[in-house]
Automatic annotation (TrEMBL):
PANTHER family from the UniProt entry: IMPACT FAMILY MEMBER YIGZ (PTHR16301:SF20), IMPACT-RELATED (PTHR16301)
Family membership: Belongs to the IMPACT family.
Name used for this protein in its record: YigZ family protein
Domain Impact N-terminal residues, every copy: 15-117
SUPFAM superfamilies, A to Z: Ribosomal protein S5 domain 2-like (SSF54211)
Organism (species): Methanobrevibacter thaueri
InterPro entries listed in its UniProt record: Impact, Impact_N, Impact_N_sf, Impact_YigZ-like, Ribosomal_Su5_D2-typ_SF, UPF0029_Impact_CS
């Protein structure tokens, strides 16, 4: 599965109308809606802020006042054609006084998203089981050795009263089993499933 690594923005002008496309990596509808709201506030003076998103818990699009089917649908089609997931696209339009017609709008919104996709850093993502490992500072060496020897990856480390690692396996190894022999001093809990850049 593919997504974009970082937010990206591109701009095109067609018959005096300005089209600004912003793409954002997003995991779910909640994140998409927050981003759409942020862009709507940022460009509150724009003629239209049209949107399309494909995320873990669904997909959707909105023409935001453009004639039905001329903005959101062409935008989501570009995302699908490029096999992109976990991404939200917003195209902001400032109307330049010349009407583009239905075909012209479809082409303009498609082109706007294609330009941004062309500039994006596209990465492969996979779904991983994320485990939280909690242990004392004195056991860091043991944990780090097990991670190295078992092709695991610590995607997050938090050093507070105890050490908390978020750990994933590159090849679906049983993380609970690996640390099971240390159950008296190392706690292992399944946290969630996450789409992450391929490890």
């Amino acid at each position: 599965m593919k997504t974009i690594k970082n937010p990206v923005q591109s701009e095109i002008n067609i018959k005096k109308s300005q089209f600004i496309c912003a793409l954002y990596p997003t995991k779910n509808k909640k994140e998409s809606k927050e981003i759409i709201q942020m862009v709507n506030q940022k460009y509150s003076d724009a003629t239209h802020n049209c949107t399309a998103y494909i995320v873990g818990d669904g997909e959707g699009f909105d023409d935001d006042g453009e004639p039905g089917g001329t903005a959101g649908k062409p935008m989501i089609n570009v995302l699908r054609k490029n096999e992109l997931h976990n991404v939200t696209a917003v195209v902001t339009r400032y109307f330049g006084g010349i009407k583009l017609g239905a075909g012209g709008l479809v082409r303009a919104y498609s082109k706007s998203v294609m330009e941004a996709v062309g500039q994006a850093d596209i990465v492969e993502i996979e779904e991983y089981d994320v485990y939280e490992i909690i242990f004392e500072y004195s056991d860091i060496k043991i944990v780090d050795t097990e991670i190295r020897n078992n092709s695991l990856e610590a995607i997050e480390k938090d050093y507070s009263d105890k050490v908390h690692y978020q750990v994933v396996s590159k090849d679906n190894r049983d993380i609970e089993k690996i640390f099971g022999k240390y159950s008296n001093k190392i706690s292992v809990n399944f946290k969630n499933k996450q789409f992450l850049e391929k490890i």
